[in-house]
Amino acid sequence: MQKQQESFIERLQRAIEEEWKDHDFYNRLKGDTSNRLFRDYIKHAEDDELKHYQMFQHLHFQLTGKYHHFEPETISYRSFEGGVIRAQQDEFKAREMYREMLFMIPTPLAYHVLFTAMTDEMEHATRFGTIYGRLK
C-alpha cells in the first residue's frame, strides 16, 4: 500500500514550520562562532529563512484565506560543527521539497515563491559547505 501523498497545502504548512525553525536555528548557530565570514554566511541564511517564512505565509493566506498557525519547534545541536552539518543537510532537504512542490503548484502565484526559496536553499547549502570545509 502506497503512502498517501501530501497535498500542496500540507507541504506548504510544513515549509512554513521548517523555515521558522531554521531561522531560529541559524540565529543561535551564528552566535557559536567568532569567525566573521562564518557569521556573515549564517546571517545571510537566517535572513533568507525569515523571508521564505513570510513569503510562504503570504502564499498560504492567498490560497486558504488564513495564515498557518503552529507550535514552533527548536533544532538542537551539540557543537558548531555539528550544527553546520545539520544546517547543510536541512538545506538539501528543503531544496528537494520545493522542487517537488513546483510540480504541484495550484496557481502561478506559487511559482515565484517556490523558485526563490529553492534557489536560496542551494546557495545556503554551498555557504554551509564552505564553512564546514574551512573547519577541517
Task: Describe what you observe in this structure.
By secondary structure, this protein is mostly helical. The protein is 74% helix and 0% strand. The protein has four helices and no strands. Helix 1 packs antiparallel against helix 2 and helix 2 packs antiparallel against helix 4. The longest helix is centred in the middle third of the chain and has 29 residues. The radius of gyration is 15 Å and the shape is elongated. The protein starts with 7 loop residues before the first helix and ends with a helix. 32% of the residues are buried.
Spell out the key features of this protein.
single chain; 136 residues; 74% helix; 4 helices; mainly alpha
Total beta-strand segments:
0
Estimate the helix proportion, in percent. Answer: over 70%
Principal-axes shape call: elongated
N-to-C span:
45 Å
Q: Supply the helix-strand structural class.
A: mainly alpha
Count of alpha and pi helical runs: 4
What composes the largest sheet? none
Mean pLDDT value: 94
Radius of gyration: 15 Å
List the secondary-structure elements in sequence, H or E: HHHH
Report the portion of residues in β strands.
under 5%
- Give start-end ranges of low-pLDDT stretches: none
Topology:
Layout: H1 8-29, H2 36-64, H3 80-102, H4 109-135
Q: Outline of this structure?
A:
By secondary structure, the protein is mainly α. Helix content is 74%, strand content 0%.
